[in-house]
Amino acid sequence: MWTKLVTSGISFYQKLIIRLEKKWADHHPPSFRNYVLFKKGTSATLVDINDLLRIWTRSALEGGGFSQLLPALSRRELYVLRQVPRDLLRLSPVLLLAPLPGTIFILPLFFAFPRLFLNRSFWTDEQRDRFDAEQLQFRQQVAARRVLASLHDAYSRLRLDPHTSAPMNQYLDLLHYVHEQILTGTYLSSECLMRLEPLFRDKLTLEKLSKTHVFSLCLLHDLPVRVRFSPFRQWPWLRTYLEPDYFHLRRVHMLRFRSRLLLAEDRIVDHELRDPGWVTSLSSSELKDLCSLRGIKTMHKSAEESTKELKRWISISLNISNSSHAYRLHLPVFLFNSCSD
């Protein structure tokens, strides 16, 4: 008896909601579209949170930290581990207000600033394409130039260092050559670029990069950074002297973890790319996400061209040392800023 009452009550409630939603859609389509986006976004976010909790639980039970767990994760789990913690921070105002009555009336505020308050699950397809294109353009035109400038500063500093060995000076000359070719938009072969790796395992490891260099790398890989002192924008070199070491060490840790995530995903994608059926079944949005993460432009390019550049990244990434984090993180500059589109 009670089961029937509960079932009929739930059924009545569902029908009532459907009827109210239909009336809402008929009388005020714009606000109803926001409501649908909010409902779908909330549902997708809850799924992501559940997946993240499952990964955290698995890591805690197995021990050893995330670094040892990464090779055993799927591509979906790597995405969750990379993106969801950042999304939760951005969504915190929405998640706190969502259970409260009357939240529906302030939804327009959130949707007026979707990039500030909402994550990808709440964006429309048009917003997602526009925001991704703008962010990738910033990474390739602004952040990449800062990284190149930092590389040139490191080259000049090491060249003047009397303790730099002769073999390292040869690698520095190669770095200078690569730097000049990138500035002129000249294509560089993978073999030429891979010859730089020993330099990044010795003199240019993440721990030895300047604060400005590390900050620029974070911008290049779209990692969360905050400019806590406004003069840093105009005079980045001030960061070396005025910014506390804690922020620098935290950024180094984020970059190292991003490199490990990229390596783990590269291994999965490399295995999947060997299956011709997987390549043809890969959706355009998935291919775009894989490329965008690595700084590869997909706009005005065919799927074959984007896949070719993705394969080039993976080939280099998997043929260098697993611990060459600094080199792997510079690949967007070496590979895709050397090719004029």
Using brief descriptors, characterize the structure shown.
341 residues, mainly alpha, 74% helix
Task: Write a brief structural summary.
With 341 residues, this protein is an all-alpha fold.
What does it look like?
It is a single chain. The chain is mostly helical and 341 residues long. It has 19 helices and no strands. The chain has helices at residues 2-27, 29-62, 65-69, 75-97, 107-112, 114-117, 125-160, 166-183, 190-194, 197-200, 211-220, 231-234, 238-242, 245-273, 276-281, 284-293, 303-318, 325-329, 331-336. Helix 2 crosses helix 4. The radius of gyration is 24 Å and the shape is elongated. The N and C termini lie far apart (70 Å). The model has no long low-confidence stretch (mean pLDDT 83). It is a single-pass membrane protein. This is Letm1 RBD domain-containing protein. It is found in: Mitochondrion inner membrane. InterPro entries: LETM1-like_RBD, LETM1/MDM38-like. One of its GO terms (biological process) is intracellular monoatomic cation homeostasis.
